[in-house]
Amino acid sequence: MKKFVLNLISVLTWIYQAFCVLSIVMSVAMTGFMIFIISQPDIRAEVEKELQPARDISLNNNTIWWLLFGLFGFMFVGFFAQFFICHYARSIVKNIKQDVYFAIDNLKLLKKLLISVAVYVVVSIIYYVMAFCNYATLTAMSKHSSNTASSMFYSSGVAGGLLFLAVIYVVYLVFKYGMKVQEDADSII
Fold first, then answer.
1. 17-29 per-position pLDDT tens digit
2. Which residues of 6-44 are buried (b: 16+ CB within 10 A; e: fewer)?
3. How many angstroms separate the Cα of 34 from the Cα of each of 92, 99, 129?
4. Which UniProt keywords apply (predicted)?
């Protein structure tokens, strides 16, 4: 059963890493598209003409663009952190499958894993706050908006929670088998 779960975690981390790479590529394309829109005055005027009656939004407002670029920047950092979290978790799982529990490599990998998780958590919080501010800015600029900022929800909570759960499980396995090794060492003494 242990090997099955470890193999399942390895496969899931590969799949998740593939989604992270795909997300990074799509985000780069979206950022390029945004830069293209900003640089084209005709397109900008047409988009503003469509947004003006409904939302009373001006694309000349630099706050919107800085918030959007900030969101994309934190999104990139978050995707990279998730990619490295999966990489380090898979490396630790590989060592556990080879019955290498308490080794210097595992401790280094665990430290890198925890740093990556910390970066991901901080970036997620900042990303959420920036998204909330962006939403509040757009709705505050709208004269006709009946939405409130409290109707926005934290959309990446499920994926982040599952990723964090996988990390906790890997740490649990490391310490579980570490205690087993420690008990064996104590019984020999």
1. 999 999 999 988 9
2. beebbebbeebbeebeebbeebeeebeeeeeeeeeeeee
3. 39, 49, 21
4. Membrane, Transmembrane, Transmembrane helix
Tokens of 89: 């978790």
Other CB atoms within a 10 A radius of the CB of residue 101 amount to 19
**Interaxial angle between packed helices 157-188 and 62-97, expressed in degrees from 0 to 180 and rounded to the nearest 10:** 30
Closest CA to 97 of 7, 189, 15: 7
Distance CA 101, CA 6 (A): 14
Whole-angstrom distance, CA of residue 124 vs CA of residue 114: 15
Cα-based distances in Å from 21 to 14, 26, 37, 60, 133: 11, 9, 24, 32, 27
Q: What is the torsion angle, in degrees rounded to the nearest 10, for the CA atoms of residue 34, residue 35, residue 36 and residue 38? A: 90
- What pLDDT, in 10s, does the model give residues 65-123? 777 777 788 888 989 999 999 999 999 999 888 987 777 788 788 888 888 888 887 88
Reported as a single tens digit per residue, the pLDDT across 121-169 is 788 878 777 777 766 655 655 554 554 444 445 555 656 766 776 777 7
Indicate the residue type of 74: F
Classify the phi-psi angles of 29: left when phi > 0, otherwise alpha if psi is within -120 to 50, otherwise beta: alpha
